[in-house]
Amino acid sequence: MATTIPQARRVGMVSLGCPKALVDSERILTKLRADGYAMSANYDGADVVLVNTCGFLDSAKEESLAAIGEAIAENGRVIVTGCMGNEAEAIRERFPDVLAVTGAHQYEAVVEAVHEAAPPTQGPFVDLVPQQDVKLTPRHYSYLKISEGCNHACAFCIIPQLRGKLASRRIDAVLREAEKLVAGGTKELLVISQDTSAYGVDVRHEERQWHGHAVRTHMTDLARELGQLRTPEGQAPWVRLHYVYPYPHVDAVIPLMAEGLLTPYLDIPFQHAAPSVLRAMKRPANEAKVLERLKNWREICPDIAIRSSFVVGFPGETEEDFQYLLDWLDEAQLDRVGAFRFEPVEGAAANTLADPVPEEVKEERYARIMEKTEAISAAKLSAKIGRTLPVIIDEVGEPDEDGDIGATGRSQADAPEIDGNVFLRDVRPDLQAGAIVDVEIEDADAHDLFGVIA
Questions:
Q1: pLDDT tens per residue, the chain (454 residues)?
Q2: Could you tell me which residues are beta bridge partners of residue 307?
Q3: Can you give 192-245 as a three-state secondary structure string?
Q4: Rounded to 5 degrees, what are φ and ψ at 266?
Q5: Using CA atoms, how far apart are residues 83 and 63, in angstroms rounded to an integer?
Q6: How far apart are CA 51 and CA 84, in angstroms?
Q7: Parallel, antiparallel, or unpaired: how do β-strands 449-453 and 422-424 relate?
Q8: For residue 386, with 0-12 CB atoms within 10 Å meaning exposed, 13-18 middle and 19 or more buried, which class applies?
Q9: Contact 321, 314 (CB under 8 A)
Q10: Rounded distance between C-alpha atoms, residue 192 and residue 144, angstroms
């Protein structure tokens, strides 16, 4: 008598917040798929919906609460996880119908909650061939999370309360994951954490064996080994470092960029430049030395792109402090800059500081810093007109009425989602996302480049 295999239970996911949360979502869905669950792209088809929340800023919390409300209205069977899971009481008070609430990177607790809410209908022997890990990014780029948590005590941040102290992953496990991703089609690895430069501090940079030799749990060893990876076609993948605090050992990765082992790109969260504001933020205040190091890095690797983010309107920030920041930016000539108006976060030390900056002053300073950084960006991009640059293709368009096909890609100076794009004209019909092509730059604006395949 034939046995009918029951249909797999389906799980929907709403993932909010930073790339680190996206990696958490991928891990949760990978485990659930291994347990026999299928994925649902919409509310209607899901037996249960997971909402991976962000709790970094009050505005992010409101977005998370809105997402929970929408999921309950559209589906009704909702499990909440992520950074805002630490505020379970507040979530349950507003949404008493949520099935479960778990905190950040509590993978086992989330999976257990799904098992209780929608027990799996298929046994582990239905799929004898293991499936690939679930990816929520396009196939050609992947986030590689190397640690959890953070040891800093920045006055405006509650990440250590949400995600705990620094906990570094084993370097051999990180390298094995990277190797697997590249073998599976990843052309660009984006290394992420709360503090990439501190990788391994918590385990005293312990050594592990990797392909017959010892490697330390340290950012420089990690960067060097990632630079040895090759795609099945024999190409070196792009390796991009994010959330890099400018500790002295960061100097050691710049030659790797000059040699082509690493993508010439550093994402450094400077946050401000005025010494008094940095002290109030409880951040390192050595902005003059940083300028000297930026100069040295550019001498070693002229194509290096530096991106950063800055907070304006921090409590106590004077007009002189803000002007100091603008003048510092003139000197630093950073390639990519994001700016944020200071926003109090429940539980952050900065909330008790004196001299809060009025909202209208924050807005005015935000407009001024964006005007400054746009002008710097426009000049830097304009200088690239006439050059030929490697570009990774993210998307290929449909033919227009004349049959011409356009494409969108990124240069090595552009991380996905946060930086600019390179818009290509007249590409060939067989061009695929993930291809890395040489592009002649024909034009530029304040954020993007325009060109044609060389």
A1: 445 556 788 999 998 888 878 888 888 888 888 888 888 888 988 999 999 998 777 788 889 999 999 999 999 899 999 888 878 888 998 999 999 998 876 778 888 889 888 888 755 544 444 455 666 677 899 999 999 888 887 887 777 777 788 999 999 999 999 999 999 899 999 999 999 999 999 999 999 999 999 999 999 999 999 999 999 999 999 999 999 999 899 999 999 999 999 999 999 999 999 999 999 998 866 666 899 999 999 999 999 999 999 999 999 999 999 999 999 999 999 999 999 999 887 777 787 888 899 999 999 999 999 999 999 999 999 999 999 999 999 999 998 888 899 999 999 999 998 999 999 999 999 999 999 999 999 999 999 999 999 9
A2: 267, 336
A3: ECCCHHHCCHHHCCCEEEECCEEEECCHHHHHHHHCCCCCCCCCCCEEEECCCC
A4: -135, 130
A5: 13
A6: 10
A7: parallel
A8: exposed
A9: no
A10: 6
> CB 158: neighbour CB atoms within 10 A?
18
Q: Around 140, how many Cα atoms within 13 Å sit in the side-chain half-sphere?
A: 16
Q: How far apart are CA 259 and CA 239, in angstroms?
A: 13
Strands ordered across the beta sheet of 48-53: 38-40, 10-15, 48-53, 78-82, 100-101
* Cβ-based neighbour number of residue 14 at 10 Å: 18
Phi, psi at residue 389, to the nearest 5°?
Answer: -125, 145
**What's the predicted TM-score (pTM) here?**
0.82
Structure tokens at 339: 């700016």
Distance in angstroms (rounded) separating the CA atoms of residues 194 and 217: 16
